[in-house]
Amino acid sequence: MISRVLVADLPRHVGERVRIAGWVHRRRQLKSVTFVVVRDRSGLGQVVVAGSGGPPEETVIEVEGLVTANPRAPGGFEVTEPSVGLLSEPAEPPPFDLYRPSLRASLPTVLDNAALALRHPRLKEVFTIAAASVAGFRSALDGLGFTETQTPKIVSSATESGVNVFGIDYFGERAFLAQSPQFYKQALVGVFERVYEVGPVFRAEPHDTARHLAQYTSLDAELGFVEDHHDVMTVLREAVAGMAAAVPASGVVVPEEIPEIHFADAQDLIARLSGEDPRGEPDLAPAHERLLSDWALRTHGSEFLFVTGYPMAKRPFYTHPDPERPAYSNSFDLLFRGLELVTGGQRLHRYADYVTALAVRGESAEPYRDYLDVFAHGMPPHGGFALGLERWTARLLGLPNVRQATLFPRDLHRLAP
Amino acid sequence: MISRVLVADLPRHVGERVRIAGWVHRRRQLKSVTFVVVRDRSGLGQVVVAGSGGPPEETVIEVEGLVTANPRAPGGFEVTEPSVGLLSEPAEPPPFDLYRPSLRASLPTVLDNAALALRHPRLKEVFTIAAASVAGFRSALDGLGFTETQTPKIVSSATESGVNVFGIDYFGERAFLAQSPQFYKQALVGVFERVYEVGPVFRAEPHDTARHLAQYTSLDAELGFVEDHHDVMTVLREAVAGMAAAVPASGVVVPEEIPEIHFADAQDLIARLSGEDPRGEPDLAPAHERLLSDWALRTHGSEFLFVTGYPMAKRPFYTHPDPERPAYSNSFDLLFRGLELVTGGQRLHRYADYVTALAVRGESAEPYRDYLDVFAHGMPPHGGFALGLERWTARLLGLPNVRQATLFPRDLHRLAP
Question: Of A87, A417, B290, B323, which has the fewest Cβ atoms less than 10 A away?
Answer without folding.
Answer: B323
